[in-house]
Specification:
By secondary structure, the chain is an alpha/beta fold. The protein contains 9 helices and 11 strands. 33% of the residues lie in helices and 29% in strands. The strands form 2 sheets. Strands 2-3-1-4-11-5 form a 6-stranded mixed β-sheet. Strands 8-7-9-6-10 form a 5-stranded mixed β-sheet. It has 2 domains: 9-98 and 186-219, 3-Layer(aba) Sandwich (D-Maltodextrin-Binding Protein, domain 2), CATH 3.40.190; 99-185, Periplasmic binding protein-like II (D-Maltodextrin-Binding Protein, domain 2). A hairpin with a 4-residue loop joins strand 2 (44-47) and strand 3.
Length: 220
């Protein structure tokens, strides 16, 4: 970390559904920059007066940027934190972007208990989470990593089960899938690089406390 870096607080925001919610929340406590947009062509967007830099990253990459100090702090879903398992501080549950990690099967394959699915194939974007979950149940499964359209896997015979993130469950119903296990709830989290948290403690701690107070006041 250079002396120049010490003058700025670099914040990583994820592309996708959390971007606008996160940018709007930060703006309420004075953290903004002109031209801050998910579609900005600028790779780094800076507020020179406030000494704030924003970087916009792919969702799965954001914890890596924070872990290695390319960003001091970031906002990311708990589902991504669980899967990526990066060495960062989780400072605050921001209470939005709620969804849950779950396991689902086609109705035709529905079993009485989870152990009845032993040795079946599981398609997922979350192989680490899936493997840990089934291991905790004492069940050995074949995990197949996919990057999208997870619901397609059972339809074409690639896998019997899926582990995925859902919000309302509507997509499951549309594809004749039934949730058989809730693995972990997920909301947006404020995370910090471990070195930055010590070196820039005052700024990061104040931001975390301001966000906490804001969320509490909005919840009343």
């Amino acid at each position: 970390m250079t002396s120049s870096d010490m003058n700025y607080l670099t914040i990583a925001l994820p592309k996708g559904k959390l971007f606008d919610l996160s940018a709007n929340l930060l703006a309420k406590v004075g953290f903004t920059a002109e031209g801050l947009s998910e579609n900005s062509r600028k790779l780094v967007i800076t507020n020179e007066a406030a000494k704030i830099r924003f970087i916009i990253t792919k969702t799965q990459d954001l914890p890596t940027y924070v872990e290695y100090g390319a960003a001091d702090i970031g906002i990311i879903g708990k589902d991504v934190l669980l899967e990526e398992n990066k060495n960062v501080y989780e400072l605050l549950d921001l209470k939005y972007g709620f969804c849950r990690l779950m396991a689902a099967v086609p109705q035709s394959l529905l079993q009485e208990k989870m152990s009845d699915y032993a040795h079946m194939r599981v398609a997922t974007k979350y192989p680490r989470v899936a493997e840990q979950y089934f291991h905790s149940l004492g069940i050995q499964m074949e995990i197949i990593k996919l990057n999208g359209s997870i619901e397609l896997a059972p339809m074409v015979g690639l896998a019997e089960l899926i582990v995925d993130i859902v919000e309302t469950g509507r997509t499951l119903k549309e594809n004749n899938l039934i949730e058989v296990a809730s693995i972990h709830p997920a909301t947006a989290r404020l995370i910090a690089n471990r070195v930055s948290f010590k070196m820039k403690f005052d700024r990061i701690h104040k931001l975390s406390e301001d966000l906490k107070c804001l969320l509490e006041s909005e919840a009343k």
